[in-house]
Inverse folding.
């Protein structure tokens, strides 16, 4: 408790007041914690991924998307396949038991040089592929300049 001395000299009654500081400090700490939790810099480790699900309604105010080139990265148990809707396909087999990430980086850099304005990539993992391998492929794609990631079921046909 804090005391406020307001006098009491000269025969007058002392009017000392005790101010409860503990509830005030508790309130300030709650406010600080709330501000820390809701801070904007908590988005530093955020990865934006769009996943379209069957039956999900399209927004009515958006025009239908143009038929443009779609780049697809298939993650299979045998390795990577980098394909596009133009019909070209590049197979990157596994190097032993692990995925050949260096070759994937090189092929994505080649695609980036061919079309530097293309930022979208569709990742289609096959059943049985480890989650860790999907995340590594996503990190590589974002690092090579494809931040517009979408994930689709590996068994769906594009």
């Amino acid at each position: 408790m804090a005391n406020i001395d307001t006098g009491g000299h000269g025969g007058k009654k002392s009017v000392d007041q005790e101010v409860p500081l503990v509830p005030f400090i508790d309130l300030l700490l709650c406010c600080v914690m709330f501000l820390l939790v809701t801070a904007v810099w908590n988005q530093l480790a955020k990865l934006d991924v769009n996943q379209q699900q069957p039956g999900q309604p399209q927004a009515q105010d958006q025009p239908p998307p143009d038929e443009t080139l779609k780049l697809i990265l298939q993650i299979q148990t045998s390795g990577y396949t980098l394909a596009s809707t133009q019909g070209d396909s590049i197979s990157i087999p596994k190097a032993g038991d692990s995925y050949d990430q260096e070759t994937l980086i090189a092929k994505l850099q080649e695609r980036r040089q061919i079309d530097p304005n293309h930022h979208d990539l569709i990742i289609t993992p096959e059943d049985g592929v480890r989650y860790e391998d999907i995340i590594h492929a996503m990190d590589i794609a974002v690092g090579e300049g494809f931040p517009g990631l979408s994930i689709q079921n590996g068994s769906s046909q594009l």
